[in-house]
Amino acid sequence: MELTTQPLAYRISDACKIAGVGRSLLYQAIRDGSLQAKKYGRRTLILHGDLESWLSTLPKVGIKL
């Protein structure tokens, strides 16, 4: 049986790639408290669940035909 593992936390650069957003937007979300981040030494980490939760709170796109 093969197990696929998913990281528990991402560095800022990795979180940006995964979420498809820029560093400025990610840091703004951390500053305004909508995205929680952790510090480990000088490194800023975003937990996988926190990134998913933050993405789920972003507004939906409304398409009007």
Q: What does this protein look like?
A:
The chain has helices spanning 12-19, 23-31, 48-57; strands at 9-11, 38-40, 43-47. By secondary structure, the chain is α+β, with helices and mostly antiparallel strands. It has one domain. The protein is globular and about 45 Å long. The mean pLDDT is 92.
Give the key terms.
globular; 3 helices; 65 residues; three-stranded antiparallel β-sheet; alpha+beta; 42% helix
Topology:
Layout lengths: L8 E3 H8 L3 H9 L6 E3 L2 E5 H10 L8
Antiparallel strand pairs: 1-3, 2-3
From the helix content, strand content and strand pairing, which structural class follows? Answer: alpha+beta
Helix coverage percent: 40-55%
**Fraction of residues in β-strands:** 15-25%
Low-confidence stretches: none
Assembly level? single chain
Q: Mean of residue pLDDT?
A: 92
Gyration radius (Cα, Å) is: 14 Å
| Overall outline | globular
- Strands ordered across the widest β-sheet: 1-3-2
Distance between the termini: 48 Å
Q: How many β-strand stretches?
A: 3
How does the major sheet shape up?
Answer: 3 strands, antiparallel
Topology as a string of helices (H) and strands (E): EHHEEH
